[in-house]
Write a structure and sequence with these properties.
The structure is a single chain. This protein has ten helices and eleven strands. 41% of the residues lie in helices and 22% in strands. Strands 1, 2, 3, 4, 5 and 6 form a six-stranded mixed β-sheet that branches. A five-stranded mixed β-sheet has the order 9-8-7-10-11, with helices on both faces. The radius of gyration is 21 Å and the shape is globular. The two termini are 36 Å apart.
């Protein structure tokens, strides 16, 4: 095998190594890109996608501890990179480019992946590519749907982000709306932890919500009435906490299933409402749902229904590609590789959305 080459049929093949370490999961993946230069198409195949999860470790603390996360990345990154190569049946000499998440995220965690990628790229003279974590989540949709092409509207929902973007092309993201405070994923995890669900609270809350009455509690919507489709989750979290604390002060325990159902319904309804507004504003004919919270079954169902009503194509990655993973980083890195946007050895990480 070779890292890149052109077949007699005019198809160019290359392998991209994607590295992800922005939070509490270390991931190394290899994606095979086959470009048909005659037809102008690109076929993508995930050859390996290894994820070293830290959920069991952080569950002891009810959330991610940045220092512990960084140390765990150090222990895992080299091992899983060579595991990915072995799984794909490749050697490092077959890799045509190394893509790594550089921003946004936990700075200590990001630095582990960035420095490992820089060292490997320098040692083996392999092109290095900087990838935006949010762009990578959206790029997971290209792996799910080979026919997906911009322009489209993207709703990115995770533990740290809740934003609506108009994706004009693979590298151009225009924010249409977003959260003004907390993210939807953080809102799910916080209330899940308070009512005693295991970390990550969002996943457990998703399951519990099916057992409750979604109309049991009236909670404030995270959808803001403003000039653009923005969100705010702080008031919703406070209202839920007040319900829980008031019940406990009376010596009672709130019905967890009813709260989970009502809380989930309120968030899903708010996200769907503002997404609908954004679809109308932009005239987009395709909606992409991406990010860790894209795994939420209630949200997937609500947006599927909304898109069917509006005759809008709906694309969301499979559950395995919703959380942080290296395959999405490799997919996003390809577009920067295609444009010759390579990073140098002074590449750094940043906790902020922009670098």
């Amino acid at each position: 095998m070779t890292c890149a080459g052109t077949s007699p049929q005019g198809k160019r093949i290359m392998y991209i190594l994607g590295l992800e370490s922005s939070c509490d999961e270390t991931s190394a993946a290899i994606v095979r890109m086959q470009t048909d230069e005659v037809m102008g198409r690109c076929e993508r195949e995930i050859c390996a996608n290894i994820v070293a999860s830290q959920i069991k470790t952080h569950r002891l603390y009810g959330g991610v501890v940045p220092e512990i996360a960084g140390r765990a990345h150090i222990e895992a990154v080299s091992r899983i990179t060579y595991e990915a190569l072995e799984t794909a049946g490749l050697t490092i000499s077959d890799i045509g480019a190394i893509a790594v998440t550089t921003h946004p995220g936990l700075i200590g965690a990001l630095l582990v992946g960035v420095n490992f990628a820089k060292s490997l790229a320098f040692a083996r003279n392999i092109p290095l590519i900087s990838v935006n974590h949010i762009h990578a989540h959206v790029a997971a949709a290209y792996l799910a749907d080979p026919e997906l092409k911009p322009p489209f509207l993207a709703l990115v929902v995770s533990g740290g982000h809740t934003q609506l973007y108009m994706v004009e092309d693979e590298l151009t993201f225009c924010m249409i709306g977003g959260t003004r405070d907390d993210a939807a994923g953080e809102a799910f995890d916080k209330i899940g932890r308070v009512i005693g669900l295991p970390y990550p609270g969002g996943a457990a809350l998703d399951k519990l919500a099916y057992e409750g009455d979604k109309g049991a509690f009236v909670l404030p919507s995270p959808a803001l009435a403003a000039d653009r489709p923005d969100f705010s989750f702080s008031g919703l979290k406070t209202a839920a906490l007040n319900l829980i604390n008031s019940a406990r002060q009376r010596g009672e325990e709130i019905n967890r299933a009813d709260l989970a159902a009502s809380y989930t319904e309120t968030i899903v309804r708010g996200l769907t409402k503002q997404t609908s507004v954004a679809l109308k504003l932009t005239g987009a004919k395709t909606l992409v749902l991406a990010g860790g919270v894209a795994a939420n079954s209630h949200l997937r169902a609500a947006l599927t229904s909304e898109c069917e009503k509006r005759h809008v194509k709906f694309v969301t990655p499979p559950l395995a590609l919703c959380g942080d993973n290296g395959a999405m980083v490799a997919a996003a890195g390809y577009f920067r590789y295609r444009e010759g946007l390579f990073a140098s050895t002074d590449l750094n990480a940043s906790a902020a959305d922009e670098m």
